[in-house]
Amino acid sequence: MNEGHETAQKSAIEKAPYMRFLGASMHHALVTTLRRKRTILAGVIALLPVVIPLLLTVFTEGAFGQEGNKLFVMLVEDIYVKALLPLLAMFFGTMLIGEDVESQTIPYLLTRPFPRSALVLGRFAAYMIIATALVLPGIFLTFAACTALGSFSFSPANLRLMLHYDGALIMGLMGYGAFCMWLGAFFKRPIIVGVTTLFGWQRLAFFVPGLIDFFTIEKYVTALLPPLAEARETPTLRTALAEFQKQQFLIGAAKSVAALCIITAAMIAITVFVVRWREYSQAKAMES
Amino acid sequence: MSVVIEAKELSKWFGEVVAVNNLDVTIESGVTGLLGPNGAGKSTFIKLAMGLYGPSRGTIKVFGQSPRNNMDVLRRIGYCPEFDRFPDNTTGFEFVYWLNRFYGLTGGEATRRAEEACERVKMTDRMDDLIETYSRGMRQRIKIAQALAPAPELLFLDEPMAGLDPEGREELFALIRALGEEGRAVIVSSHILYEIERVTSYMVLLHNGCILARGKVHDVRELMDEHPLAVTVECRSPRALAAHFAGDDTTLSIEFDNGRVTVRTRDPNGFFDKLNRLITENAAEVTSFACADADLQSVFQYLVR
């Protein structure tokens, strides 16, 4: 090692603006996540529903053919919203902080003069960019593939329907992602807790009578979905949709958006608190 | 010299395990050695000083302030941890670059400092390779580079010599001394007295979370001199190597075991100087050497008595 190297600067590094830290955190998370093989895998999974209408176009015909409108609604609501959304959030959300905890590299970050909130917010922003970039093209391609089945076209009403789903999915990614990021920061095995909560508890809560389903994220995401989406092109139904939504879900779209924003903000705040105060190397110290 | 770290009645426990026990210590600028066997509380003390842990009792102040989540303190500190962990799929340069960015440096400044730090630890040639492809010594160098890059006023080096070859050790010894001469505070932890002696004249001796002795290395050394140090050397011709030490007055015994020779000496400094020379000259084709931990442990037990 070069002892004769020029004398290093004596002065400490000056305080940097908050946005620079936020930008560095987001940029770093984007670069590292995009390099992961799991990102490619997630991209492939997000595009799988597109295959279904394509296969149906080729292999079914006549009276047995599936209507494009029905199939699109089914694929988005049953596959994207109920399965892929929590899966992607778990895939990426838990690793935002959890990967550094798991690989024991988090002390490198926590010994930097890096506002913890900037670390968490930057990584969450990177997750939203990547997850949205994976899901929205999948929705669009599914939409396009469904138009090949008939009774479904690139009409303004149908495009509005797709944009409605896009909005609901982004809100869902936000809520689920913040929750999973907290799981990654707090639990030793976040994937196990995530599967139990998102695929166990959420399913169970909908079968239990009463209002227990209000303690799920899915409740607020499904409340954002367009009711009677398969018949939205019927003008007489449109006027009744808002009232019907309230009756069906017991919560309106505006309140659902507010609920998801509150869940996201609360989870981010708790994650910042956990990252600030948790002693991440403690388990290792106890072992030694 | 100014006080950099001040601990008062500092204790840290994990469940029923007491890692640091009622420490009262002040550390000034310059190089300070933290010496102690494994589990003595060296790393825990450093993590308390870095703010990675909060004290269970007592206080610790760095630059006059509590270090936990204190950005003003962390801005002035560099840390080379003892663990050998790195982010996946990352080159040495990127590792140092991104950790520089987390100091709040701009992209250009982070690049410049990362390149300088890699040059300082002689990793320029390999800095664009993935860390997964590095040897243990290279990984150690890149860890030191990330700690040096922000030019901190206070530098914690936790077991920095681990994994380095003899040449690398000598370079690191020189680097640490140079950093101390620049006026920086450098805290070096090790469980090998010889390593501490090579970089500083001031040390704190820890055992079971307590301070056993502190002060000039020479004074502590005198306490230990009566206790011999055993060094096991693995080489191609153990008997030829042993012949170099057999005539020394300070050599107490020499034992052979399956391609290895264990020398018990009263003068570790003289022994290591001679061994380094032999390695450099490739006179004995040494493949590895190690101080027996058990012996260091017995030195501490001797001091405790």
Question: Helix proportion of residues of chain A, in percent?
Answer: over 70%
Greatest interface (CB-CB under 8 A), with counts per chain: A-B, 48 and 62 residues
Beta-strand residue fraction of chain A: under 5%
CA(first)-CA(last) distance of chain A = 31 Å
Terminal CA distance of chain B: 33 Å
Overall mean pLDDT score of chain B?
87
- The third-level CATH topology of the largest domain in chain B is Rossmann fold
Mean pLDDT of chain A: 84
Helical content of chain B (DSSP H or I, runs of 4+): 25-40%
Q: Uncertain regions of chain A: pLDDT < 50 for 5+ in a row?
A: 3-11
Short account of what is shown:
The complex is a heterodimer of chains A (288) and B (305). With 288 residues, chain A is an all-alpha fold.
Describe it for me?
The complex is a heterodimer of chains A (288) and B (305). In chain A, 73% of the residues lie in helices and 0% in strands. Chain A has 12 helices and no strands. In chain A, helix 2 (37-59) runs antiparallel to helix 3. Chain A starts with 17 loop residues before the first helix and ends with a helix. Chain A is mainly α and 288 residues long. Chain A has one domain (18-56, 67-277). Chain B has 305 residues and is an alpha/beta fold. Chain B folds into 2 domains: 3-223, P-loop containing nucleotide triphosphate hydrolases (Rossmann fold, 3-Layer(aba) Sandwich); 225-304, 2-Layer Sandwich (Alpha-Beta Plaits), CATH 3.30.70. Helices cover 38% and strands 30% of the residues of chain B. Chain B has 11 helices and 13 strands. Chain B has helices at 42-50, 71-74, 92-101, 107-120, 136-148, 166-181, 193-199, 217-224, 238-246, 268-281, 293-304, and strands spanning 3-14, 17-28, 30-35, 57-62, 77-80, 154-158, 185-190, 202-207, 210-216, 229-235, 251-257, 260-265, 286-291. In chain B, the strands form 3 sheets. Chain B has a 6-stranded mixed sheet with strand order 5-6-7-3-8-9, sandwiched between helices. Chain B has a 4-stranded antiparallel sheet with strand order 11-12-10-13. A 3-stranded antiparallel sheet of chain B has the order 2-1-4, covered by helices on one side. In chain B, helix 3 crosses helix 4 (107-120) and helix 4 (107-120) packs across helix 5 (136-148). Classes of the chains: A mainly alpha (288), B alpha/beta (305). At the A-B interface, helix 1, helix 4 and helix 12 of A face helix 1, helix 2, helix 3, helix 4 and helix 5 of B.
